[in-house]
Amino acid sequence: EGPTLIETLTFRYGPHTMAGDDPTRYRTKDIENEWEQKDPIVRFRKFLEAKGLWSQEVEETVIEEAKEDIKQAIAKADQAPKQKVTDLMEIMYEKMPYNLAEQYEIYKEKESK
Q1: Coiled coil located at which positions (predicted)?
Q2: In angstroms, rounded to a whole number, what is the distance separating the alpha carbons of residues 13 and 105?
Q3: pLDDT by residue (tens digit) across 17-72?
Q4: Mean pLDDT, all residues of the chain
C-alpha cells in the first residue's frame, strides 16, 4: 500500500565510547533488563522467527554478505582520488565562517605546494 515509516526508540546497551566509559556508573542492571524485554529490535527478531522469516542461519548469511559488501565498498573508496580539504570546505559553506577562514588559508597554502 506504499511506503511505511517505522519509528523506534532503542536503548544503547554499550558505553558511549570505548575510552573507559562505564555504563554501570549511570544506570542499573534493572534498567538494562527492562529494556531487553521491550527492545524493538529484539522483539522484531522474535516476531520474524515466529513467522519462519528469520533464523540464526539466515542472520549469519546476511552478516557475511554485509561484511563482503563493506569490504568491497572500502576497497572502492580507497581507489577514489583524495579530496582536497579546501574543496570540501568550499562545498560545505557558501560563505566561509570567520572562525574557519584562517584554517582554510593554511590548507590552501599546503595544497598549492
Answers
A1: 56-83
A2: 43
A3: 888 888 888 899 999 999 988 888 888 999 999 999 999 999 999 999 999 999 99
A4: 92
Catalytic residue among 16, 27, 43, 45: 16
Q: Residue 86 falls within a domain, yes or no?
A: yes
Q: Which range among 15-19, 80-84, 85-89 shows the weakest confidence by mean pLDDT?
A: 15-19
Supply the pTM of this predicted model.
Answer: 0.55
CA-CA-CA-CA torsion for 70, 73, 75, 76, nearest 10 degrees?
A: 180
Q: Does any domain span residue 1?
A: no
Q: Which residues contact 100 (CB under 8 A, 6 or more apart)?
A: 89, 93
Catalytically annotated residue among 13, 25, 26, 45: 26
Q: What is the pLDDT of residue 40?
A: 84
Q: Is 12 a catalytic residue?
A: yes
Give a yes or no: residue 22 inside a domain. Answer: no
Residue 33, in any domain of the structure:
no
Q: Residue 107 catalytic? A: no
- Check if the beta carbon of residue 108 is closer than 8 Å to that of residue 86: yes
Q: Domain count of the chain? A: 1
